[in-house]
Amino acid sequence: MDKTAIVVGGTGLIGKALVDKLANADHISKVITLTRGPAEHFSPKVHNQVIQFNHMEDYAPLFKGDLLFSCLGTTRKQAGSIVAQRMVDLEYQYTAAKLALNNGVCHYLLVSSSGANSHSNNAYLQMKGELEDRVQELSFDHISIFQPSLLLGKREDFRIGEKLGSWILPVLCALPGLRRFRPIQGEKVAEKMIRVSQNPGPSLERFSLDKIF
Fold first, then answer.
1. DSSP class of residue 111?
2. What's the gap between Cα 49 and its chain centre?
3. How far is residue 138's CA from residue 154's CA, in Å, rounded to a whole number?
4. Please, what is the angle between helix 123-136 and helix 93-102, to 10°?
């Protein structure tokens, strides 16, 4: 079961944990990380390629493998606008999915969000829902969509909203009916993605918060 895994978004909270776990996974022989800047790794199994995401088609041959883990994402503040955030969270990820499919990748694993809905009034949840809708139309053998809530873990960038949420939500989510919104460690999501990549289920499967824990 020597498989090649491709990771976009390998420098984020989930992505970093995922790359570490892929490097130690028995069913993975090679990991290709596609990043905006150099991202060194301890394992010889991990091969980093620096690309320009706004010209992703120029790097099409790098999307050849067995598994695509799509963990790319940003915030409105980091991107500068909703339009720029949509480019990263929606357009770049969809382009990566199409390139991977054209290169024979069979299994697509996407980090989305709890509440993702293309008809949502919330811009973030709307773009996540739009991406889910689009990738479902692609003919991968397996599509696995993970929908975590607020992610916990050490980030390079400080996010005050997430920090406050990490203090408040665990208390609120102890109340009846709110448990499904409880925060989750990014590493837990990565662990679930690894398990699913080893034993894929139906052609399309969503993992809500309770299915990830």
1. E
2. 18
3. 34
4. 10
Kindly give, in sequence order, each residue whose CB lies less than 8 Å from that of residue 177, ignoring residues fewer than 6 positions away. Answer: none
Q: How many domains does the chain have?
A: 1
pLDDT in tens, 162-184: 444 444 444 444 445 445 556 77
As a whole number of angstroms, the distance between CA 60 and CA 107 comes to 17
Please list the active-site residues. 124, 128
Distance CA 159, CA 43 (A): 30
> Which CATH number belongs to the domain containing residue 141 in this structure?
3.40.50.720
Close Cβ partners of 70 (under 8 Å, ≥ 6 residues apart): 8, 9, 93, 96, 97, 108, 109, 110, 111
pLDDT in tens, 75-106: 898 999 999 999 999 999 999 999 999 999 99
Q: Measuring CA to CA, which residue among 69, 61, 25 is closest to residue 43? A: 25
- Residue 113, classed as helix, strand or coil, is coil
d(CA 211, CA 213): 6
The kind and range of the H/E element at 46 are strand 46-50
How far is the C-alpha of 158 from the C-alpha of 163, rounded, in Å?
8
CB 148 within 8 A of CB 165: no
Closest by alpha carbon to 213, among 177, 174, 184?
Answer: 184
Supply the range of the domain harboring residue 172: 3-212
